[in-house]
Amino acid sequence: MDTIVECVPNFSEGKDARIVEKIAGEIRRVTGVKLLNVESDVDYNRTVITFAGRPEAVKEAAFNAIRMASEVIDMSRQKGAHPRIGATDVCPFIPVANVTMGECIRLAQLLGKEVSEKLGIPVYLYAEAAAAPERRLLPVIRKGEYEGLPEKFKNKLWRPDYGPCEFNDTVRRTGATVIGAREFMIAYNVNLDTQDIQVAHKISGIIRTSGTFQVDEKGEKVRVPGLFEFVQAMGVSLKEYNITQVSTNLHNYKVTPPHVVFEEVKKQARGFGVQVRGSEVIGLIPREALLAAGRFYSKESLEKQLIAAAVEGLGLSRLNKFLPEKKVIEYMLGLG
Question: Which terminal residue of the chain, N or C, has fewer Cβ atoms less than 10 Å from its own Cβ?
Fold first, then answer.
């Protein structure tokens, strides 16, 4: 049976289509890999590329893409709404079929070593591939972003797992890269019909696992846990559409699925006198996540009808057209 690994690198360029195409082209030319999705955002200045295939071929394509990104993206000039640490911000491997998590961890380690040795880029390992507990979470590694790398390198606790620990001329251009292995994650954003970014920030703090800080009766800051497990969230402004977003990463959609997040954000938004303008999925989404939403929003039984109900209920086509045949990973891979 075929072994299939998915890879979803995020690149710090979403404005120049020619640069994005150069990076995607490096993936297309590798035999044994299928390019599944290329999704750019101008305000985020970020592109998410999804591809899958045989493990060794996927690793080769990932290296080629990271190499090209290091040549065409200059981090010393890059600006955008989304947090980032390098030209290739993050590059995770995800087991899809007949592949273990251990094999994906090994791919991450091999790629990290190759990227550091051949390209001179500092590499941090994260998620299941993390060498230390404090490096499991991407936001923790990314804290301080690209601009904070010179100070980060001075801290013994934040030496890269591979590559240089200095802000030299190469690193000034490329930044660092975070490589790892994880289960399927859904990048899911809920659109708010307001330009007030504080509303998006407050709702994000309410729903994300880490919660937010509040001042208690003694005037001291205390952390209040969020409503959901396995959820990262932040507020982002989308100037192109004159709206804001609650931008989330759902790290276990079986525990906290998109429709549960969507309904809670709607509820919280109403409390601020704000309406929700649908939602969007960045990259691909597992079929079961949409079927669960379809069962929540309708009493249909057929898969096609449930998927349609999910798209309607989540407002997935209100900002950008959502085509299940292009956005559901199983459909894209011909797995059912």
Answer: N
263 and 308 belong to one structural domain: yes
| DSSP-derived pairing of the beta strands 123-127 and 177-181 | parallel
Q: Which two tokens stand for residue 153?
A: 């390198």
> pLDDT confidence of 1, banded at 50, 70, 90?
low
My answer on whether 240 and 156 are in the same domain is: no
**Domain encompassing residue 161:** 4-181
What is d(CA 10, CA 138) in angstroms, rounded to the nearest whole number?
12
pLDDT of residue 336: 65
What is d(CA 275, CA 311) in angstroms, rounded to the nearest whole number?
Answer: 18
pLDDT at residue 301 tops 70: yes
Name the CA radius of gyration of the chain, rounded. Answer: 20
Q: Average pLDDT in the 88-92 region?
A: 98
Number of structural domains found in the chain: 2
Let me know whether 296 and 278 are in one domain.
yes
Report the CATH number at residue 149. 3.30.990.10
**From start to end of the chain, where are the E strands?**
4-7, 10-11, 33-41, 46-53, 88-97, 123-127, 177-181, 186-192, 212-215, 221-224, 231-238, 243-250, 276-282
Other Cβ atoms closer than 10 A to 214 = 11
Neighbour count for residue 142 (Cβ, 10 Å): 20
- pLDDT at site 142: 96
> Does residue 214 contact residue 60 with C-beta atoms inside 8 Å?
no
Same domain, 134 and 263: no
pLDDT digits (tens, 9 = 90+) for 275-294: 999 999 999 999 999 999 99
Return the structure tokens found at 331.
């459909």
Domain check: are 102 and 232 in the same one? no
